[in-house]
Each structure stands twice: as structure tokens, then as C-alpha cells.
């Protein structure tokens, strides 16, 4: 492949070979469509191909963070830990790809640079950086909500003479920090997972923190044969609960509201969630992300837990967030994060108090000091939700580009379609619950909906499906109203675009819960694709 000027035709082009793209290939193929997948990386995996930093692992339990569409896959694969490490997740994805014979449908090392609509024939002309041109009826953008890594524009970064890493582009060869002075910039999930592991090797570790984050211990542990047998015996029920849940996991919030229970019951509920570990702490009670008083109860419990493991009260003060309600940014899931700051060779630098001014050949200059380091690790996150799509020239009706259309922020209907872009589908992008849910199930749900829509078009003699402008506008209002009814907009998070200088602000996700969202999508389909125009 990749022969300049070569032009072929398929039913569907899928961009990306992460969890979403792989399933899209399998599902659409099994429906009899001809499919080409283009993947910029040399291998499958997406997130799990790139993010191989020390300590990288999932924060949704492995037994839930895996495909559900084929019970045989669930029964045959054995997860070794409650939260599998990056390497194991990548092995799982490769195993699935081999089991389903997916590799021959994927063209690797090939980036899609443009997708242009032929308005008359309603076909997409997809162009790649290897010069290949493919004409397709459908375009499925499985480009990932967290696949465009963000490197801040630190003056002098290019002149740093030491080793420079980004967590989202970690090298394949082993990185050894033994005997080295290392700086980690960023304390989101990636920083918080990697810092304790890097601290085990580094001679000196400087952590540059701008905004402290809430992090709950993972409680990670090996799964026993009994654990696996029990989960496999009850998988169907586990999945049933996940599909109906707020976040795509089988754990249900306490049946009462936070302030309806006695202080003892409340504490017991928080304690139980704390033991469960990680991100689901924000869903202990169903009103925790809505009612400020309820949120404050969770925050106080959290603060007590964290203070108890940090030796130095001044360090604790710096590490405990005070600028956003708990859960309004994704709660991080850690192993020994706060304990790491008790080690004498680990130093926390608050760049809120003393900002990073520049980087030079030897290290990092803050407003009050110079830090000599041998290596810098950027754990500075992503241009989330829209970053990967913005890199592609997607041109729809009237020569209108998606980039221009979204200049004021993304506009979608259900997170699946955009007016002016017929037969172009987004997977796990803005306007859907996406990263607020277990993303493997979320990808399956989106791909299933898309596959059903394609069947419906064919069964009813239509060529294309296109969101109407009204439906897109109304969905935007619904997203905003739902977000404003919660505490989420109170945080400067990547959910709102706040982490990228100059990016338009707005809550980009559907906050109403995974199960509720799936009901809306199903209702739309059942009503003959209400809000879409069938052409
Ligand atoms: P990705 O895995 O991001 O795949 C997108 C692919 O598209 C990439 O391989 C990329 O190279 C390719 N691509 C993009 N643009 C182009 C182009 N123009 N041409 C060709 N190829 C292109 N979610 C959870 O639910 N639970 C977790 O525990 C969890 N942990 C995470 C840990 C980390 C470190 C990160 C960064 C994210 C995590 N997430 C988690 C979110 C995660 O991104 C999703 O769970 C999921 O892996 C996304 O799958 P995807 O296929 O949608 O996108
Ligand atoms: P992130 O949450 O956006 O964190 C980026 C960090 O870098 C923040 O601490 C940010 O500070 C800091 N930063 C950015 N620019 C900076 C600058 N110019 N100067 C100083 N600090 C700067 O990114 P992430 O940690 O990669 O995580 C992104 C998402 O990926 C997560 O929320 C999660 O959904 C997913 N993820 C999951 C896991 C997991 O546990 N399974 C692991 C990694 C990632 P500010 O907060 O002040 O902006």
C-alpha cells in the first residue's frame, strides 16, 4: 500500500486502530462491508500503544475495561491484576486482533491527512500522508479523545541537553533513571501514576505541580483463580449492570442521598468506595457531583485520608486541592502517590507559587530557583476531545471544514454526527459521555449504533445519514444545561478545553450518565433516526 496516486474504493474508512477502530473494523466487516483502517502508529493499540510510561495502567477494573461483544473473549482471557498495566492491555488488544483476524484490514504507519466530501455523489475522498487516496461511502473517525499529546511552550525547551520524555510518547526501549536527577512536570493521572515508580529509581526527583489533583489509591492487587472464576461465572450480570450504569462499570451508587443518611452511614459508604479504589469515589452517592454540601462531605473524608499518609503538613497543604470540587476533574487512581512525598529525595515544587520561567540546557528555571536535572518527563496531558480531529482536513458540504465549523467549540448531535458532514461518524468524541464512561463499552456502543444506522440506510434505500442543524444546536443546549446543573463546570479541566491555551471553553461531554445516554441514542434510532436527515 501507500503507492502515490493509487485510488481505491471501499464502503467504509475507519481512522484509528485503538479499542474503537478495532471493533469498528470487526463489526462493519461482519456486516459485509468492505473496510480500510488507517493507523498512524506502526501497531494497534492507540492509547495503550503510546502511553507506556512507568506505572501506566487502567483506572477502570480490567475485567470491565475489555470487550463485551463476544462472551468467548471474556471467558478465554485471564486478567492478572485488578488494574492491568499498559503492557498487558496491549497484549490483550493484540490477542483480540489475531483472534478476529483484523490485521489485514489495517494499514499502519499511515496518517489520514484529509477527508473531503464529494457532495454530488455523497462519497468521502480520504487522503493519507503516504499518498494513498481512498473513496469511501462512510468515514468512521476513531481517532481517540486523548491521542493528541500536549507539550507546553516552555521557553528554551528545545535547548535542554538531557533526556526529554512525554508520558504519551514513551520510548519502547527501557528507560533507566537510576542515579539520575529527574523532573516530572504535571500531576494529572499520568504524572500521578508515574511519579512513585520513577521515584523508586531516580537519585533525585523534582515534581513540578501546578494544580493539585484528587487521587484515590487504586487498591490494585493480583487477581486469584477464584476471583477470575467468580467474575467469569457472573459476567453477564456484571455487563448488564455496566450498560445501565452512570459510568460503564457495575458499581451502583448508595441508594440514598448524601445528607439523607446518618454521619456513620455516610462514612461507611465513603470508606467502602475508598476500599474499592480510584475514580469511582466520585460516584459514592448519586448527588455528590450535583449538591455542593454532598460534595463537601466527600471532600472532607478525602482530605482526612490523604493528610493521614503525608508526613509533612506543609507538603500536605500543597498536595490537597482547594480550587475545585472533588470529582470535577477525573479523580486520579494511584499506588503510593502521596507516600512518595515522604521520601527525602523527592521534592515538590508548586509552580503556582513559583512558575516555570524557562528551560535551559541544564534544567528548569522557576521564578526563584534553578533545578539541574538529567531528564525531564512531561506529564502535561492532551489536546483532548478535538485535538486529533483538528489535525485532519475534514471538508463537508459547501467546502466547509470541520475545523472552522468547530472554531467556537465542537458541535455534534449525540456525539455521533455533525450537520454538513453526511456519513461521517465520530466515535467517543465530543458530545458523548466518552471519557466519563468505561471507554471500551462506550466504543462498542457507538460502533453498534453506527453499524445499525448503516443497516437501516441500506434496508430503506437511503444513501446517507446526516444530522440536522437543529438537532446539533439542540444537543449543544442540552449538553450545556445538563453540565450547568452539576458542579463540573467549576473546574478548569480538559473536559472544558481549559488546559489548552486559546481553546474555546465549554463542557464537551454528555454528563447525564452512560445508561441514560444509550437510552437517548436508542430512542433516536427507534424513531427512524429522529434529528438526522436520511438521504
Ligand atoms: P485511541 O486509543 O486514542 O486510538 C486512536 C488511534 O487513532 C491512535 O492509535 C492514533 O494513532 C490514531 N489516529 C489519530 N489520528 C489519526 C490520523 N489522522 N490518521 C491515522 N491514525 C490516527 N479510559 C477508560 O475508560 N479507562 C481507563 O482506565 C483509561 N485509562 C487511560 C490511560 C491513559 C494513559 C490514557 C491516555 C487514557 C486512558 N483512558 C482510559 C482513555 C482511553 O483513551 C480510552 O479508554 C481508549 O483507549 C480510547 O480508545 P480509542 O480507540 O477511542 O482511541
Ligand atoms: P492532565 O490530566 O491534563 O494533566 C496534565 C498535567 O500537566 C496537569 O497537572 C497540568 O496542570 C500540568 N500542566 C500542563 N501544562 C502545564 C504547564 N504549562 N506548566 C505546568 N504544568 C502544566 O493529563 P494526563 O495526566 O495525561 O491525563 C489525561 C487523562 O487521560 C486523564 O484525566 C484520564 O482520563 C486519562 N488517563 C488515565 C490514566 C489512568 O489512570 N488509567 C492515566 C493517565 C491518563 P494544570 O492542572 O494546572 O493544568
From TrEMBL:
Keyword NADP part of the UniProt annotation: yes
This protein's UniProt keywords: FAD, Flavoprotein, Monooxygenase, NADP, Oxidoreductase
The keyword NADP belongs to this UniProt entry's keyword annotation: yes
Source species taxonomy: Bacteria, Bacillati, Actinomycetota, Actinomycetes, Mycobacteriales
Names of required cofactors: FAD
Family, as annotated: Belongs to the FAD-binding monooxygenase family.
Cross-referenced PANTHER family: L-ORNITHINE N(5)-MONOOXYGENASE-RELATED
Protein name stated in the entry: Cyclohexanone monooxygenase
Signal peptide: none
